[in-house]
């Protein structure tokens, strides 16, 4: 039996990367999927792929920097399905800048997308999550939010906030039988499914990806599909006693002390 048969999932950032991979994975496991994205072409493409495979999906265009747009998204999703069983907050916006160079505008935009949007999406969809009588929220964080990335000042700070947000939400929402967990991933790339990345150039420094590969015990980047599989597990009944936790998906890279090998 499919793990999410007769269940409903909202996937934020569904147009590309781990968001598209998760949308397709949840649909294959029987879920009806609301594909949320600010990119109409990519988001609708994901929803069309699900429908083309016989699944149930809608696209909801949403500007994650705008609280009013997020509220509208929540109203649309709740009108679509009164009960939401899964919310995957796969929000990603990276704009490289060092501490001295980043503008307040860039800082605010990255904090809005990477930290405030997961909070607001969760809060505004809470009535439907409560109505499911057993739901799961999965945030997509980053290892940059734990150890930091000096080239991604605002992104690191925002993703760092996702970890305590996960713990706090896990506490407050347990009373409604809603579990909240987080995936902290490292470098991710597309696998056999050829899923497009959110950014056309995830690395802007020559040799950066090779350095990360050498620093990773498994010797390769992770795949969008692997992030999706982790989200699928955390949202499923197989993880029914996992709450307020952070799962690291980085091939072992942050398990080592930098500069010791």
What does this structure look like?
- The structure is a single chain.
- With 261 residues, the protein is of the alpha/beta class.
- It has a single domain, classed as Rossmann fold (3-Layer(aba) Sandwich).
- Helices cover 42% and strands 17% of the residues.
- The protein contains 9 helices and 9 strands.
- It has helices at residues 17-28, 40-52, 67-80, 104-124, 126-131, 144-147, 153-173, 208-214, 224-235, and strands spanning 8-12, 32-37, 57-61, 86-89, 135-142, 178-185, 188-189, 222-223, 246-249.
- The strands form 2 sheets. The protein has a 7-stranded parallel beta sheet, sandwiched between helices. It has a two-stranded parallel sheet with strand order 7-8.
- The model has no long low-confidence stretch (mean pLDDT 94).
Name a few traits of the molecule.
single chain, alpha/beta, 9 helices, globular
Categorize the overall geometry.
globular
> Poorly predicted ranges (pLDDT <50, ≥5 residues)?
none
Q: What CATH architecture label applies?
A: 3-Layer(aba) Sandwich
For CATH, the homologous superfamily is named as: NAD(P)-binding Rossmann-like Domain
CATH C-level name: Alpha Beta
Rg over C-alpha atoms, rounded to the nearest angstrom: 17 Å
For the biggest β-sheet, the strand order reads 3-2-1-4-5-6-9
For this structure, the CATH topology is: Rossmann fold
Strand-and-helix sequence, N→C?
Answer: EHEHEHEHHEHHEEHEHE
Count structural domains: 1
N- and C-termini, Cα separation: 46 Å
The helix content is 40-55%
- Helical stretch count? 9
Secondary structure: number of strands: 9
Most strands sheet: 7 strands, parallel
